[in-house]
Hints:
Immunoglobulin-like, rod-shaped, 3 domains, alpha+beta, Serine Threonine Protein Phosphatase 5, Tetratricopeptide repeat, 12 helices
Amino acid sequence: MKALRMAIPARTVVALIAAGLLASSAVAQSRGNARLGGKVVDEQGQPLPDVVIKAQMNGQTDILTGKSDKKGDWRISGLANGEWRVELAKPGLEVAIEMVEVRADNAPALNVTLKKAAAKVDPMVEINAELQRAASVAQSGKVPEARKIYEDLLVKYPSIYQLEGFIARTYAAEDNMPQALAHLKINLEKEPENVELKLFQAELLMQSGDKAGAKAILDPIDIAQVKDPGQFTYINYAIGLINDKKGPEAAELLTKLIAQFPTTNELYYYRGRAYVSAEKLDLARADLDKFVSLAPTAKEAADAKKILDQIKK
């Protein structure tokens, strides 16, 4: 069987030949009779072996390479006249880049000292340390100073958008809900499915008096996704429902919370209050009795006992 051959048009052949000639010319332009060499040492002046040297003539693609010996000496031959970029590199040391001009087939000796590479600093080390400092400052009552720490971090590390949430909490501590909501919104735009942030937003809206806004955020959240202490946002919401005479709705919500957080004793107290509002006194009595037995020293215990006395009359 005869081998298949591809017929190449004459113009293509000419183009291929021309391209090959150009490539050969580019390589040829960087090759000459000069030699470049020198010595490479560390910061203590000790010779460095196995340093890789790469030399590339300006405007050319060809790269000539060499390596230093045990004495730190190195040499590269075959350089053409012109300006050369020389790179010296060894793992663990900073890369050195030098420009050398070759004239009349002569090049000056290139003696280089390689410095130890600076250790890479993990920015999270600084960020976490500053977050701890800000928390300590805030706990001491210096909320504006804590906020300044967060703001300075955000300027230095603008990609750490979670800092907006920390700034929001400082404004919330000062009862500045508009600013708190504004900064929290920036954080939420980056993490729209973050349940903890949604609960915080709902809490801020309730404190701002926007019950409808809080409801719009809380209703779609699956309570099974809520982690401790997120239940307290829902408790505050349930308290609002009880105060608005919406006992059945509050009781339904609190029942879901009890299923998710069975060890949060005050849930029984508030559900008992909700049942009172809904005029389901037997259920209210059962919940309030259970709460008193579980948490007899809780701050709500006295009120629970008072309601029980009223129910029994």
